[in-house]
Design goal:
The chain is of the alpha/beta class and 262 residues long. It contains 6 helices and 14 strands.
Length: 262
């Protein structure tokens, strides 16, 4: 999997050492992968730091560089997986991070099963399902259903910390619990995946965001797989056709957002 270039370690140093004093900060790391940091806690979200899988579907190639080498990660309190697809639960990304840190793993049944098969100790894995609530340091995590037709065990999360709330979507499509999330939480930001083949299209994502009612929508995954990307231009055309109760920020790989400043 050497088809995409890695960024120099200076970027990892930058994000691991950045000062986070008040509200959480979120970095986009390509496709489904994000780093969420608070003053006390470092959470890696669906980390996938590898190239095109050997068994990828025809014409699907990773289209972004890889910003982090997993065997160089030194700051990790929690690693979450929303579901067991390779770009959300990846052996050669998870094992180096877990092996070199004290990180706990949070995952639904399907991902947790893979983690145990790869040799991660059960004591370090929290199997979760919708309705669970966990806390790590200054971060509370509420677990909700996902509506991914390709993965029935998938889950979504709401992270709460420092007076902010972040919806972590994985590859979910629309479903009843997303309206529940919008009713139960005052979301600061919501991640939602769109693209072709496996994800919501542009109109579906906007409709789903309307149910979640975040202050800011953060679209992702649209840039990640060649020939399966989303049309970001069409997305903004649709966004500006009507009055929307949320703003939109597009985070390119390496970009960050401070949730408390949204």
């Amino acid at each position: 999997m050497r088809d995409v270039a890695y960024w120099p370690k200076s970027f990892l140093d930058e994000i691991e050492q950045a000062r986070v004093e008040n509200s959480p900060k979120l970095w986009a790391l390509g496709g489904p992968s994000f780093l969420y940091r608070t003053p006390q806690t470092t959470v890696w979200i669906d980390p996938y730091f590898s190239g095109t899988p050997d068994d990828a579907v025809p014409d699907a190639y990773r289209a972004t560089a890889i910003p982090v080498k997993p065997d160089e990660v030194r700051a990790a309190d929690v690693v979450i997986s929303t579901h067991d697809h390779v770009d959300h639960c990846h052996r050669d990304t998870l094992l180096p991070i877990v092996g070199r840190t004290e990180a706990a793993c949070v995952a639904p049944r399907s991902s947790a099963k893979l983690m145990r098969e790869w040799g991660i100790a059960s004591a370090r894995i929290s199997d979760v399902q919708p309705g669970d609530r966990l806390r790590f340091g200054d971060v509370a995590m509420d677990v909700y259903p996902s509506y991914d037709p390709n993965e029935p065990d998938a889950v979504t999360f709401v992270f709460s910390s420092g007076g902010t709330e972040l919806f972590v979507s994985g590859d979910t499509s629309d479903g009843p619990a997303l309206g529940e999330v919008g009713e139960n939480h005052k979301l600061t930001c919501a991640l939602l995946a769109f693209g072709r083949t496996w994800y919501m299209n542009e109109a579906e994502m906007l409709a789903t965001a309307g149910k979640l009612r975040p202050q800011t929508l953060l679209p992702f995954h649209w840039e990640f797989w060649r020939n399966h990307t989303g049309d970001i231009f069409r997305f903004f055309e649709l966004y500006h056709e009507g009055e929307r109760p949320f703003e939109v920020r597009v985070l390119l790989i390496g970009d960050s957002i401070e949730l408390g400043a949204v």
